[in-house]
Specification:
heterodimer, A: mainly beta, OB fold (Dihydrolipoamide Acetyltransferase, E2P), 15% helix, B: alpha+beta, Four Helix Bundle (Hemerythrin (Met), subunit A), Alpha-Beta Plaits, 5 domains, six-stranded mixed beta sheet, 28 helices, globular
């Protein structure tokens, strides 16, 4: 079990170390303390009756881990896996999951004061899984809140099955 | 009110676990003691109470400390011999056990759960003081210690010990341990033990030893001898001559002053060979009945591993309780008290001869065992199991690579080396897998242990005299099965007591033995565990059952007539069979037996019953040793592989699609006059429906599965084969998983889905199909008729 990150992030105080992933030309940031590893795309075993964004399960060194397609989750058009496609294995407070992203570009330190609350327009109804937005040069990075993501997922999973 | 305890966060779990363990030890001990005081057991419960008191005091649980203290004092009185019958105290002590459990729970709950401890503490104290007073007053009464124990003083005073200094405390505790061990080795029943233990206790407290090996000899002189003191003196002098005598009880002075006793306990040092010689010489002295030797705290013999037969423990009135740790065979049990006498005679004879190696080493073994256990969080074991599973998968891959290398390179040293290495690796991985699987195994004792108490309480409530015999409690099975088997077993035991056994009056009228016997056994058979619950009660009458099923409309008269007696008994497992009326009429059991069956079947097990009217009933459960590793039929279905647990698979078929029938838009299969709904496996699991898939020769591959009497044929793309698989849970993120038991990692590293056949049959969209099949079956029947 990983240590839960202290609030404020993983790096020196005032900074957050994040993994930057690309999804349809948008940049998403994940707190590195929540990321276990990043693996290449691999065959996924589909699970009947799972919500559509749950692509199925994979074997990660003996552990069975559900894999979520973030494009599908965020309502974007789904894409075929490419050489760049990665599965980011991350852990929320609830569970360990794999997140399918178009690619992983870099790991960087983000000054906390560069993070702004999510504007209404960008967030829509799904603001729970966004922690905020950071401006890095000319790039906008959306910071993901894993707990929110899974809370929503569970709800929709239940709703989907009901 | 919120309770707070002096505990580090997270330590409450440790406290709870350990305390519950001690409490259970006391409960087990009490149930044994109720039928006769045995020093070993008395010491054990005393120590457990002492430990419990200590932990309660450490965390500042005052009410628990007080209660355990009062309990410990009472046990102390048994230990010192002031009290020698537990039975009058049994009810209040068992009530104390229940309250203690509640007090332990308070630590986790953080609030007061019981207000009983104060009253109970007082009750225990009052009981102790009044009992002690009457014991003092009636000292002329034949107290068991009075007959042969010449000592008073240190040993007797050793009972309630509340504030001794810690070193003395520790020494006394070590002495207890040794005394208990010796008492077990020289056990001939509680009374003699009570005489020996204080002597040993005194010896060890008075002569604390260093680290040299020491032995204790217990010598007995013929009670009818006219020269008792002379013989004792002879014994002591003989021992003194070897130079190895450390101390004796009674002492030489006491013997010379003519203290009338037939018992001499000596603490000796010296090399084992010399001591064995000495024993021979001592045993050769006239009128010496026996010389028993055992190792004092440090063992003198080498550790021998003896073949241990399955244990048999008896709880209940009538039979003398087997001393702790002694193994008794079926024959002895069957022969009853006569055999017990024979056994005692045997012991006597044995004692006269040389000590067997086992006798000398058992005490040492036990001490070692106590020191070599550690506590591990089960989640860590599960993680270990995961890693081993992965290692095994890679083992196969490595072997494949080595073979590939051999074909590529031909006869090449490198290829040979790789092959040898991979073989070696495979062997070690296999052994590791066995070991880790073994770590998860626990003796069924943890479940069986609750039953002496259950039986005692129910028997008391029903006014029945019952003894419980437990056989094979050390039989091991996986934790996962163990957790599930307790409730069904409890059900069976209650049923046996309630409905199986007659009242004492009825039994007397029938000339059947009292107390009645309920026998709980466990053993390994064919890679599974077989558990039986047997009673010697009324049994069940197949004809009465026939009448009952016809009355209840579960069978027609013809069907009932055609059913064999053995099959007729099995109707008790049918849902809807058991109602109170039937139960009383057919003197059957039946209450919730269908629930027992479905619970056991869910675990991949099965139940059976045999019975002879007037002689008793035996219900047997067969269970897999583990739920984590199961045998499964692997099938291909669309893009993935699914595993169907073999326990639910009836047969596999390849048939032409045109031989399938269609009823109301559903495919059905007619198999030996049964009409079975057919469905594509992936659709049954919840994927979008697709037409039946045929193989390249135009056949449909079908797997017929069954659960709780319902059947279904699942169409699959291809059969892969039978494999042992490791069952793993699916994350909640994957949504509702009706029809899936979990997933497994297959040899090639891909994930396969494990089908929950029972749930599939229950939940499946094929309910409509099943209804259609029923309709078809009805039609078929009409056509046949």
């Amino acid at each position: 079990m990983a240590e839960k990150p202290v609030s404020g992030g993983s790096g020196r105080s005032g900074e957050l170390q994040i993994v930057i992933c690309e999804l349809a030309d948008e940049h998403y940031g994940l707190d590195i303390a929540r990321v276990f590893e990043i693996i290449r795309h691999q065959p996924i075993t589909a699970v009947p009756r799972a919500p559509s964004f749950v692509k199925g399960v994979i074997n990660l060194r003996g552990r069975i881990i559900p894999v979520v397609d973030l494009r599908d989750r965020f309502g974007m058009a789904t894409a075929e896996p490419t050489k760049e496609t990665r599965i980011v294995v991350a852990e929320s407070s609830a569970t360990r999951v794999g997140l399918i992203v178009d690619s992983v570009s870099e790991v960087l330190m983000l000054p906390l004061d560069a993070v702004e609350p999510t504007p209404e327009v960008a967030a829509g109804a799904d603001a729970e899984y966004l922690r905020g937005i950071a401006k890095l040069g000319d790039r906008l990075v959306l910071l993901l809140e894993l707990d929110g993501l899974f809370a929503l997922e569970e709800q929709s999973a239940l709703a989907g099955a009901a | 009110m919120r309770l707070t305890f002096d505990l580090q966060p997270g330590d409450d779990r440790l406290f709870t676990d350990e305390s519950l363990e001690q409490i259970e030890r006391i409960e087990q001990g009490l149930l044994e003691l109720e039928h006769g005081v045995d020093t070993g057991v008395v010491n054990e419960v005393f120590r457990a109470a002492h430990t419990l008191k200590g932990s309660a005091a450490t965390i500042g649980h005052r009410r628990m400390t007080d209660l355990t203290h009062a309990m410990e004092d009472l046990f102390g009185a048994f230990r010192s011999g002031t009290l020698y019958e537990v039975k009058p105290f049994a009810d209040v002590l068992l009530a104390t056990i229940d309250v203690l459990r509640a007090l332990v729970a308070e630590v986790q709950e953080g609030e007061i759960l019981t207000d009983a401890p104060e009253t109970l503490t007082k009750e225990l104290r009052d009981l102790l003081s009044s009992a002690t007073a009457s014991a003092m007053a009636g000292s002329s009464a034949p107290a068991p210690t009075a007959r042969s124990s010449p000592v008073s003083g240190p040993a007797r005073a050793a009972g309630p010990r509340s504030s001794a200094d810690s070193a003395a405390d520790r020494r006394a505790e070590e002495a207890d341990e040794a005394a208990a061990a010796v008492a077990e080795e020289t056990a001939e029943g509680g009374i003699i033990n009570l005489a020996i233990a204080p002597l040993i206790h005194r010896l060890l407290v008075e002569a604390p030893g260093g680290y040299e090996p020491r032995s204790i000899f217990v010598c007995r002189v013929d009670p009818i001898s006219e020269w008792q003191s002379v013989r004792l003196l002879q014994l002591a002098l003989e021992a003194e001559e070897t130079g190895g005598l450390i101390a004796s009880a009674p002492t030489r002075d006491e013997i010379e002053s003519g203290l009338g006793t037939t018992l001499l306990v000596m603490l000796l040092r010296g090399p084992p060979a010399e001591l064995l010689e000495l024993r021979k010489r001592l045993a050769a002295i006239d009128e010496v009945v026996s010389v028993d030797g055992v190792a004092a705290p440090l063992s003198i013999g080498e550790i021998g591993v003896a073949e241990v037969p399955l244990s048999v423990d008896v709880y209940g009135p009538g039979e003398p309780v087997a001393p702790l740790g002694s193994a008794r065979t079926d024959d002895q049990l069957a022969a009853g008290p006569a055999a017990s006498e024979r056994r005692q005679a045997d012991l006597g004879a044995e004692a006269r001869g040389l000590p067997t190696r086992e006798r000398l080493t058992v005490a040492g073994d036990r001490l070692k065992a106590a020191q070599q256990t550690i506590r591990i969080d089960v989640t860590r074991l599960d993680e270990l199991m995961d890693l081993v599973g992965e290692l095994v998968v890679h083992k196969t891959r490595l072997q494949q690579s080595a073979q590939l290398l051999a074909t590529r390179l031909g006869d090449d040293p490198l290829a040979r080396q790789a092959d040898e290495d991979s073989q070696q690796f495979a062997r070690i991985a296999g052994q590791l897998q066995d070991q880790v699987t073994g770590l998860r195994m626990l003796p069924i004792e943890t479940v069986f242990n609750r039953f002496p108490r259950v039986v005692r309480d129910i028997a008391a409530r029903l006014n029945k005299e019952v003894q419980l015999v437990i056989e094979g409690k050390e039989t091991e099975l996986d934790r996962s099965v163990l957790e599930e088997v307790g409730d069904p077993l409890g059900h069976l035991v209650r049923n046996a007591l309630d409905h199986g056994l007659e009242t004492p009056d009825e039994r007397r009228a029938l000339g059947k033995p009292l107390p009645a016997t309920v026998r709980l056994t466990a053993r390994h058979a064919d890679g599974r565990i077989l558990i039986t619950v047997e009673d010697d009660g009324r049994g069940m009458d197949p004809n009465a059952l026939r009448r009952a099923v016809v009355e209840k409309g579960l069978m027609t008269r013809d069907q009932a007539e055609m059913t064999s007696d053995a099959d007729m008994l099995r109707v008790i497992f049918m849902p809807g069979f058991s109602t109170a009326k039937v139960v009383t009429e057919v003197s059957g059991r039946g209450v919730g037996m269908d629930v027992v069956r479905s619970n056991i079947e869910r675990l991949g097990g099965w139940v059976d019953v045999t019975s002879t009217p007037g002689q008793g009933t035996c219900v047997s459960l067969s269970l897999p040793l583990t739920l984590a590793i199961i045998g499964a039929l692997l099938v291909k279905c669309g893009t993935r592989v699914c595993a169907l647990p073999l326990t639910g698979v009836v047969e596999t078929l390849r048939i032409e699609p045109k031989s399938l029938g269609r009823v109301r838009g559903h495919n059905v299969l007619t198999l030996r006059n049964r009409v079975i709904p057919v469905e594509q496996l992936d659709s049954a699991l919840g994927d979008p429906p697709r037409p039946l898939v045929t193989n390249d020769r135009g056949f449909v591959n079908l797997v017929v599965v069954r659960s709780r009497g319902a059947e279904m044929a699942l169409a699959v793309d291809a059969f892969v084969g039978q494999h042992e698989i490791v069952l793993k849970a699916l994350s909640e993120v994957t949504g509702q998983r009706a029809g899936l038991a979990g997933a497994t990692v297959m040899a090639d590293g891909a994930v396969g889905l494990v089908v929950d056949i029972a749930a599939l049959l229950e939940h499946s969209s094929s309910r409509a199909a099943a209804a259609a099949a029923e309709a078809a079956a009805a039609k078929l029947k009409r056509r046949v008729a």
